[in-house]
Amino acid sequence: MGNKSYNYNKLLSPELTKSILMVAALYLITYELLKSSIIEEIKKFYFVGADYENPAMHRQYAREVLSLDKSVFLASCRWLHKMEAITTEDIQSILCLRDLRNKIAHQLPEFLIDDNSNITVNDLVKIQELLAKIDSWWIREVELAANPDFVHVDHEEVETLEVYSGPMIVVSYLIGVPTFLPPVFPAKDSSRDLSLVFSPLSRK
Helix or strand or coil: residue 129? Predict the structure, then answer.
């Protein structure tokens, strides 16, 4: 059984089971928003305002993005790294988040009975941080740079602007939906099992 530590009391608690499933769903939703930000925004950058059927645009996208890795997801990460939007460490964090996403999607029952399979506060916070970093880069470096209303604004001033994308707002809202989840996650608790935060049992 390896590192598995089965605890069927988790499964026998309706409240805890419900909270685990709730957190799992929340993680999958927020991860997909991050994934979309990584892949789809680059596609929009290459194809917006252009004929999607134009072979020249496909060749440019393939040459500058898809050539970076056989996986579209990793190729997109490497493109963002090349643009200095994210770091090598960020890519490693993204891959770890992807691994957890795959485990949740394909091995969800383990989270219901295995004490070593948990989703932590830090996992969701990391998604939120990476999404904010990537979307803020797009807004500051691409959208505002192409907006004539900001052509006379100093670049350093643009860097200090607080900007928010739709996905950033959605993730922030989703993470704060349960009224008993603190809006600011204490760093000292960042590794705790998030399902316990959502569970009424943890508040007794």
Answer: helix
Q: Looking at the domain assignment, is residue 1 inside a domain?
A: no
Residue 114 phi, psi dihedral angles, 5° rounding: -100, 120
Cβ contact 82:68 at 8 Å? yes
pLDDT digits (tens, 9 = 90+) for 87-120: 999 999 999 999 999 999 999 999 888 888 888 8
Inter-residue contact 19 to 198 (CB < 8 Å)? yes
**What is the per-residue pLDDT across 28-74, written as a single tens digit (0 to 9) for each?**
999 999 999 999 999 988 887 666 677 778 899 999 999 999 999 99
Q: Where are the alpha helices (DSSP H) in 107-183?
A: 108-113, 121-137, 155-160, 166-175
Burial of 127 (0-12, 13-18, 19+ CB in 10 A): buried
- For residue 25, the enclosing domain spans 8-203
| 10 closest CA partner among 106, 96, 121, 119 | 119
β-sheet bridge partners, residue 114:
6
| pTM strictly above 0.70 | yes
Residue 17 in domain = yes
Spatial distance between the Cα atoms of 141 and 155, rounded to a whole number of angstroms? 9
